């Protein structure tokens, strides 16, 4: 039995209407479902496998690349000439990070200690840890600046101590020893004479205190009661603020611990985080939209005001005493040693800094820091944090080791901590938090499109059926009253015969 076009049109109208209705409902309900799915996956919850594993064990490749500034002319620098440096590296180390002592609290926070280990990756490095470089001797030149305002007899005594331990103004040692520590009789002497003066009780090295260490106890919000607070720091080592700086604003502990951020970010959002290594909170700002390994991302970068001095950017007045813009004085949290942080090669710093040292060439591609983040989840896809460690050196009367060194902030090293999501973790992340929400979003348009197509088809069938029926009625009338017979054989009216 054949189905009539009228019946088909009714069926198409009903199905099309249902599809449009379902698609329209998805327009309003779909985003709620997607957001709910994101919230369930982003909350710090042991029952949320994907995000909890990413947060706890950081199962992604993470590397630290270190570049040394080898001093080409140490003797000339000691005589007051401009230092000339040559970048050596990178020396690349894979990082192993994990969280331990994880404790959940009733106020929807969780405390943990994050540990880190470094392993040298010779295949990714330019050279190896046995390479010899020359850098300023922090124990001598740093301590000399710290002793600048001490009585002259004491400064001379310090100079005699340096001589007795054969400590000069510059060090020429293998990269591995400068990184992770070398034996120093002077360090042993100072630790016995003034316990607690130095950051290490064993070998002295630029990263000696980093390997096999932790970043302190963080307590962050789990997001269970408010997803907008997830990963935000509640306290660090039990502190709500630090006391390194001279203003309440600069001492605030703001943002996250620097690994993940709350979801649903916009281009107007910022990315604040607290860095124990920099002893302060920092904030990144939106730069542009992009794609990282098939996942849409927002790129956030450091604002130009990040390391500005108080004169150029008044909110940074609390980080002073300041020198030129582009330098962060971290002496207050580094045992009062004259140490400064900056972008590599003094990128975005006062040009005066470049005039005092030869061999630097800053550019954004190589020396700017950035984080590519998936805005819907707050999970970083690609990270590159680049910072430089600098030392203030100068001639100090009474300490002959300082010679006639001109006052200059000289770079020691710069390092890049980088990581990206890849492999099975990337595939799972893309499927659960990108592809499925995208499919759900597209479904609403597909159903609405199919529904409208069905309704349009029903209308076409209905109109077509009407036209066919109209023609059939006309044909039947023609068959009953043919026009030719009516006019020729059976006239309805005849004229009377006269």
TrEMBL record:
One of its GO terms (cellular component) is cytoplasm. One of its GO terms (molecular function) is scavenger receptor activity. Keywords: Cell membrane, Disulfide bond, Glycoprotein, Membrane, Receptor, Transmembrane, Transmembrane helix. The chain crosses the membrane at residues 12-34, 442-463. It is found in: Cell membrane; Membrane, Caveola. The keyword Transmembrane applies. One of its GO terms (biological process) is recognition of apoptotic cell. The keyword Membrane applies. It is a multi-pass membrane protein. Pfam families: CD36. Belongs to the CD36 family. This is Scavenger receptor class B member 1. It comes from Carassius auratus (Goldfish).
